[in-house]
Write a structure and sequence with these properties.
The chain is mainly beta. It contains no helices and 18 strands.
């Protein structure tokens, strides 16, 4: 599968557009029936976005990887890139069902995007000019999904969603809600006979998307919560895919 390219805007404030290039996206079967967005592209929307530190998401700084103090940001086996806590009182944003650089709202069929605001050390600290953006996918595109028969049953977890991992050993990365805890979700790599718990985050997560690095064994992972009507995490993490451990 071809990778997605993020189109950037060079500006003094180091703002990057939340717009995805669709040139590399294949067209396959049609979307499931859902509302068609009635809002014009470019319409501004109310959205708050607060930066989340690695400690906020249950992670730590790790100097054993050779990073200078305070160290590499880690959450479990994942590198933490950045995170935002999003919220909006717009009635159209009741439920998030897809994520890329922006999020799609299944209640309205609209995609919400904006401009990343970059802070110190290349960490996203906010979103500028939140607005309705065009659907980043070609008409008819549907993201690949694992065969339901190949999704492992993992004690203590409930399967939520998955995306391709671009790993030879584990072709998928999924979200699993922790049983009995509405505010914890595992990020788990898996194949049809084994799995590997990469991290457990202190949030109820609902959507996941992934993007391979073209010249290294890293896969970026973007996850969000289920609704913008309550504080919802929007996180980017990185996983090094050339590992061999398994949890049978």
């Amino acid at each position: 599968m071809s990778g997605f390219a993020i189109e950037t805007l060079r500006a003094p404030r180091r703002i990057i557009a939340l717009v995805l290039s669709v040139a590399a996206l294949p067209a396959t079967s049609a979307y499931a029936m859902m509302p068609s967005c009635q809002a014009p592209v470019g319409e501004t929307v109310p959205l708050s976005a607060a930066s989340l530190s690695v400690e906020d998401v249950g992670g730590r700084y790790d100097t054993s990887t050779g990073w200078p103090p305070p160290g590499e940001q880690r959450v479990g086996a994942l590198r933490y890139a950045w995170g935002l806590m999003l919220q909006s009182d717009d009635a159209r944003f009741a439920r998030v069902d897809q994520v890329q650089s922006g999020v799609r709202l299944s209640t309205s069929g609209c995609w919400l995007g904006g401009d990343f605001v970059w802070g110190k050390d290349g960490i996203v600290t906010g979103i500028d000019k939140p607005r309705i953006v065009a659907d980043p996918y070609r008409p008819g595109y549907v993201r690949p999904q694992p065969d339901r028969r190949g999704i492992p049953v993992i004690a203590g977890y409930r399967y939520v969603a998955a995306s391709e991992s671009f790993s030879a050993l584990y072709p998928w990365i999924g979200l699993w809600a922790v049983d009995g805890d509405a505010h914890r979700t595992g990020i788990i790599a898996f194949n049809d006979h084994a799995h590997l718990v990469l991290a457990t985050l202190p949030y109820r997560l609902a959507t996941i998307t992934t993007l391979p690095s073209p010249d290294s064994p890293w896969t970026s992972i973007t996850v969000t919560g289920a609704s913008l009507h309550e504080p919802t995490p929007f996180l980017q993490l990185m996983w090094r895919t050339d590992i061999q451990e398994t949890n049978p």
